[in-house]
Amino acid sequence: MFWARPQHERMAAFAQLREREHPVHFPELGLPFIKQGQGYWALTRHADVVEASRTPQVFSSEPTTTSIPDMPGYIARYLGSIINMDDPRHAKIRRIVSRAFTPRVLAKLETDIQATATRIVDDVLARGPGGDFVTDVAAKLPLTVICDMVGVPERLRPMVFDRTNTLLGIGDPEYTGGRDFTGEITRIGALYVLVRVVTAAFELNHLAMKLARRRRREPADDLMSALVSAEVDGERLTDKEIGSFFILLVVAGNETTRNAISHGLKLFTDNPEQRALLADDFDARIPGAVEEIVRMATPVIQMRRTVTRDHEMNGHRYRTGEKVLLFYNSANRDAEVFENPDVFDITRSPNPHVGFGGPGPHFCLGANLARREITVMFRELFTRVPEIRADGRPDRLYSNFINGIKHLPFTY
Question: Is 0.90 surpassed by the pTM of this model?
Fold first, then answer.
């Protein structure tokens, strides 16, 4: 299986795709209980990914962006959030949600982010050398921050962490099972996976509705209060819309940043000269380091779009109804844009990566929050635990959607 191959082999394959004159069309895998589609075009060049991102009227986010096949209704009802919408409704809901990510709000969060990072490093030092960097460090900061923003009680946060792992680890046996001893997916295994995924989505949706009901009774200065009180075209968001957006928030706000932080430690471990460069002038170089971590890691591998009308782009004709996949990981290694693209260089400038998505209406709403969290976490780590490093090979998530690290041994 392609996605089980080592990272360097996969990136080499994408490099070959970028050299093709036109995009390549791939068939969809046949999966039990999921309607098989007609395949998709793989957009692997930076220019194509950027242009498609800027042309949402042609490359639509409806009906879905997060799965190659169209999601069955029993899953889509939970996961159909604003990333699966086009304007004008997407723009209206995004304006509501964006209030939680303004510079003023992020400035208020700064103290909380710093306090959380300090507690995480306190725990690392108290336990002594050794552990799993993902669960002990990288996952804790974004999970705490996003749960604080939407008012998830402390006692329920382990459940949120587990269920988001299930939703994004849908192809990984550690999180969802579903494979026999040969590694193949059987019908029974596929049914087991679907039940686990739907159950995880239902439980997160149910939690969101409970939090929404509470905030209708007891408004507070948090994102859930903003969601339940907001109006779009004179109408309040429905419980379904709030539940779907809550799932998007806790999944995107947790998984992607934790993977960037995890990849970051591995990158600095493998490139000690870059770590020394950062340490020499942390404040001046950390902004560039964060962008380079995101470029190299590209936590979200790809997103899907659906062509709304016949359209020619860069010499290729796309037909109405066809699917295209925007491979951000490939675009971020495009030698036409990035000099020595496989080299980790925290001084890289310019760095027009698409690790937060391409330019356009669906650029990551939480990009600045992620940048803040990565900055604060590495400042705390490299100041107080200067010898911290990865101590073994990362255990990677088996996924064609998230470039995840499940476990990463570390020491200091």
Answer: yes
